[in-house]
Structures are given as C-alpha cells and as structure tokens.
Structure prediction request, 328 residues.
Amino acid sequence: MASAPTTITVTPLEEKVAVVEQKIHNSQYALKFVGAAISNMASSAFCNPTDIIKVRQQLRTHAPGARGSSFLSVGVEMARTEGILSLTGGISASMLRELVYSGIRMGTYEYFKDTLHDVSQGALTREGLTLKIAAASIAATIGSALANPADLVKVRMQAYYPNGNPYRNLPHAFASIYQDGAQKAITAGASPIYGGLRALYRGVEATTIRGIVLSATQICSYDQIKQSMKKRGIMKEGVPLHFVASTFAGFFCSVTSNPVDVVKVRLMNDKTHQYKGAFDCIRQIMVNEGPFGFFKGFGMCWARLGTHTILTFLIFERVRYLFGIEAM
Prediction:
C-alpha cells in the first residue's frame, strides 16, 4: 500500500526575519528596564543627601521664610545633631523604590510609546507630544502604584525623630508600618491584612499623580528636546546633547512636581492622621502656609531632581550604548 505523500511547509524568509526581529525588539525592552533601574539607582545613591534634606524641609509646617528652614540650615543641623551619616538615611528604601518605580516608568516608556503608535495606526505620531505624554503617563501610573510602599518607607526612614529613628533597617520599617496599620484595623473592627496594606499604600493618590506629572515633564521634555535639536541640526547625538536636554528636563520636572511632592511627603509621614486625604492636605497647606507652602524645599528639590535627571539620562544613554541599544 503506497504511503501518503509527505507535505513540507516552508516558512517564507520574510516571516522568519520578522519573528527574529520581534524577539530582538522584545529583549531590548527588558534591557531598557534594566538600564533604567541601574541609572536611576546610581543617581539616587549620589543624590540621597539632597533628597533627605528636601524631605525634612517639606515636613516643616511653620510659615515660609522662618529661620532654620533653608536647605543649608537643615543640612548643617542634621550633620551637627544626628551625625554626617544621617544624610544617608533611607538609602536602602530609595534603592528599592528606584528599582520598581523608575525601572518601570522609564524602562517601559518606549514600550508603551511603540504600542500606542501601533494601536493608533500612526495617528499618534512619534514627533508629537500627545504620544509621549500618554506613554509616560501609563508607565508612571503603573510604576508609582507598585512602588508606593517603598516610597512611603523611604519617607518614614528619612523623617526626623527627636528620640531616635524607630526603624532599624528596611525590613523592620516595612514590618512596623504594616503591623501598626493592622493593629489599628483590629481596633476599628476591620481586617488586619487590609489595614496593613492600607498603611503601606497611604498617599498612593499623591504618589501616582506626582509620578505622572514628573514623568510627563521629565521624560517627555528630554525626548522632545533631543528630537527637536537633532531635527534642526543644532546638535548631534552624543553626550553634549544628552547633557543639554537633561538639564532642561531637570528644571521643568522640578517646577511641576514640587507641589505634589510636598503633599505626598506630608501624607506619607502623617502617622496621627492630621489630613483626611490629599485634598484636605492641600486645603490645610493653603490656609496655614499659603501658596508658597507647596514650594517648600524647591531649592533642594531642584538641586536633587535636576542633578538626578542629568546623571540618570547620561548613565541611561551610556548603558544603552553598552547593551547595543540605540539612543533614546
């Protein structure tokens, strides 16, 4: 009995090439996440002293311009009363936060940018700000929400405690905040698990809003400035262009994010529940401290965020080059 003829299916070369290119493209997204995490963690480690001074300034509730509220005064006071190592406070929580938050918000920015461009079938152009802002907002929302517990722990570890910092290390801080929330939930007749998680996610609204505002101005302005300067032939791809674009981006995001940052820090460190929520916090700051209350710590915010932005993008672009990925 004759055997049935064997059918051989040959995949067209173009399809094979497309599959390989897609795999390479997907692996680049993973490398971009790694590069974003590395660059932001390195920048945060360098800028931690300015970050903790900024937090201390933002937690001070006295009138603007009062003595002892300048970033220099706060820094000198910390070094004198708590020791120079106090300027490294919360660095472990900061590293964890950057790994999750910045790894996602910056590392997935181009993924969402490509996806939205494809879904819109080109209606959202790569040259336009709409695509950039939408991609940055989505990435920042996810990163901010997931990283909120680490962000809250960082703020708590960096706050001032007259009787000494109650948190021995990062795990102890997480456990203490969770247990405190669980205990309060039990007292109120609620679920301890929900109470513990709620304690770690206090201020998540302000955190997410800040993440969106920061990313929409920092990442998008860097991307747009680079794109515009190259298109007009003002500068070519390279370190000088990365430095100029990141300098402008650092200033823009400092201005837009500082008010939200003040509200976020106040809410996260509000252990006595002075504020009913983000809007109540905004109201109290406006009534008690005036509009300039939202810009407390701006000098240190700019010093920290501006330096952080420049270092981050310079390192990020260099890591991309080492990974064999084209510049952002």
User: Anything to note?
Assistant: The domain at 22-165+209-323 is CATH 1.50.40.10 (Mitochondrial carrier fold). The two ends are 64 Å apart (CA to CA).
